[in-house]
Amino acid sequence: MPSTLLRNIKQLVTNSSSAPFQIDLIEDGAVLFEDGIVKWVGQSADAPDSDILIDCSNQVVIPGFVDSHTHLIFGGDRSAEFAARMAGESYSAGGINFTVEKTREATDDELRLNASRLIAEMYSSGTTHFEIKSGYGLTLEDEIRSLKIAREFSEDVTLMAAHVVPNEYAEDRNAYLSLIVEQMLPAAKGIAKFVDVFCETGAFSIEESRTILQAAKNFGFQLKIHANQLSRSNSVALASELSAVSADHVTHFNDEDIKNLCDNEIVATLLPATEFSTNSAYPDAKRLINGGVKVAIATNCNPGSSFTTSMPFCIAVAVREMNFSIEEALWAATKGGALALGDSSRGSLQADGPADFVILDAPSYVHLAYRPGVNLVDSTYKNGELVFSKGKK
Ligand code: NIG
Question: What is the pTM of this model?
Fold first, then answer.
């Protein structure tokens, strides 16, 4: 494979140091990659020779966004629910069962097509790597088929059979818990990497969440938890007790939660588009960051609470509403996302790492927040391959 050099990059963000929230900027930078791997990073003046040259004058290059929390496998549409919310209704976990019904009705090809359209949107807005959860099937067959379709697009797949108790088990929650523990967890082994639980009023209690997550841990899955989305509970303490890799949402938290997240190195994955789309109060990211917590930003793309694939949109909202600095938000959407997936190789641009990057038509990375709603992406590369180019349809 020929080597390619990006050079004259006005601003090159590398995230190369191990210190959290440091974006490690190089002015007039250059990146050499070959066979999908970054070979060299530095200043244009020192760049080695290459077979192909891409001139990035007046452009910014950043590591590709790592979207560590999505629910892309679903059928149906919930725009009416969104419209009702904008007219004053509040969000509740109940809407999930509507999507469950539509997902069960959908064919494999319909689910695949829906996911691939959303993934094309992701590439066009600079995402190069993403996690996908199941959670709208809620039968053994529908959860496993969701995971298998998800695996066609990503190796970072999460079993979220504990999204809500499906309607047919409403009178016998324990039977649904047994189905998850005794049948779904063993069947998901080798397909899913993570298990996640929606620990919330209207979904799963702390005790139920502990039962499922402990069983998942015993099976060797890494753990995630939807924690403190609608109200504060002891879900972050549960994440600490079981050494989860991330606690997601964390819309509500107190000082004890901050200490638990920091001491146990659990990434807090904040989901700005969710508060935006559910008309909820935003969490204060600065409190988490000042408390030593590593924070990720993700889209939470799903048809109910957050129907966006755009990480730049999430960055803009995070900066405007959650007290992130622009540098912190950019780090959280790249390196933070990778850490939330237990992956230290992605989310940065360094020799020997994957050539996952985005070229932005902007003179400064600040434009990611300064120009909300404007797609600045010129091109997106994943493992050195062009997956989106503005010039090419
Ligand atoms: O992360 N909170 C649980 N799951 C999704 C919402 C799912 C839905 O409303 O369909 C979330 O917000």
Answer: 0.98
